[in-house]
Structures are given as structure tokens and as C-alpha cells.
Amino acid sequence: MTEQPTCRRTLLQGAALAGVAGLGLTACSGGGTSSSAPTSPTELGAADQIPVGGAKLFRDDKVVVAQPSKGTYKGFSAVCTHAGCVVDNVEGTVISCPCHGSRFNALTGAVEQGPAASPLPEVAVRVQGGKLVAG
Ligand code: FES
Predict the structure, then answer these.
(1) What per-residue confidence (pLDDT) applies to 13?
(2) Measured in angstroms, how far is the CA atom of residue 116 from the centroid of ligand 1?
(3) 67 CB burial (10 A radius; 0-12, 13-18, 19+)
(4) What is the Å distance from ligand 1's center to 122 Cα?
(5) What's the pTM value of the predicted model, to 2 decimals?
(6) In which domain, by residue range, is 73 found?
(7) CATH number of 99's domain
(8) One Pfam family from the UniProt entry (predicted)?
């Protein structure tokens, strides 16, 4: 009788540890960038502040919003994929990172100049009542 609860407890502890380990791995693999950009809905202001064919940086919210064509919005994490600095400038369609000089395409998130090797991850952006909502 005493063995069964012990075995069950051991199994539960093992499962709990496995669960914690799983969560830890999940947090590590996605934590670098996805936890930095908005993951819960964040209002960014009027949608018409984004130039058509251009983009705007919302540095405090760590997101860049582009409008490749009228009424179509795309969001990207503003956290550089090289070493995690927050990008600091958007000029035309070029996003620049101040730390080591990486540049990204503001309309696609693609790397235009290293050392970053990966594109900026997309962030969901929608327009709600004329306002941009990211995350
Ligand atoms: S962190 Fe952006 S270029 Fe290194």
C-alpha cells in the first residue's frame, strides 16, 4: 500500500520535472525574440501614421509596422536577430540596428546587411477602429 503512492509520487515528480524542463526549453527557444515583441494586444495609435510603401518604428513597444500597399499592414519585431539589441531607426524601407550595423528590409523583415543572419520575426498587426493593434 505504501509503495503505490510512492511510485505514483515518483511518477508525478518525474512528469512534473519533464514538464518544467519542457517549459524551460520552450521559453529558451522562443524567449529571445518573441517575448520581446508584443505578444498581447498593444495599441500603437492611428493607422494613417504609417506611410504607404514605408514603415514606422515603435521602439517602446519593440515593433516595426510597415504598409507595403495601401491598407495592408505588416508588423515585425524590433529586436535584432543578431544579439538582441532593439533597432533604432527606420529610413524609407531600411531598418537599422545600432549595435553592429545590421540592416533589415522594413517591408519584409529580411536581412539586407549582416551580421544578423535571420529575418526579423513577424508580429501580427491589425487595424481596429482606425488604430493599429500589434500582438
Ligand atoms: S544586435 Fe543588431 S547588429 Fe548586432
Answers:
(1) 39
(2) 6
(3) buried
(4) 18
(5) 0.72
(6) 42-134
(7) 2.102.10.10
(8) Rieske
In a domain, 120, yes or no: yes
What pLDDT is recorded for position 39?
75
Q: CA–CA separation, 55 vs 93, rounded Å?
A: 7
Q: Residue 35 contacts by C-beta under 8 Å, 6 or more apart in sequence?
A: 27
Structurally, the chain folds into a number of domains equal to: 1
Residue entry with cell 509503495: 3
- Is the Cβ–Cβ distance between 55 and 64 less than 8 Å? yes
pLDDT of 102: 98
In a domain, 98, yes or no: yes
Question: Is 107 a pocket residue for ligand 1 (Cβ < 6 Å)?
Answer: no
Average confidence (pLDDT) per 10 residues, the chain, 135 residues:
38 37 35 57 93 95 95 96 96 96 97 97 94 92
CB of 97 within 6 A of ligand 1: the answer is yes
The three-state secondary structure class of 123 is strand
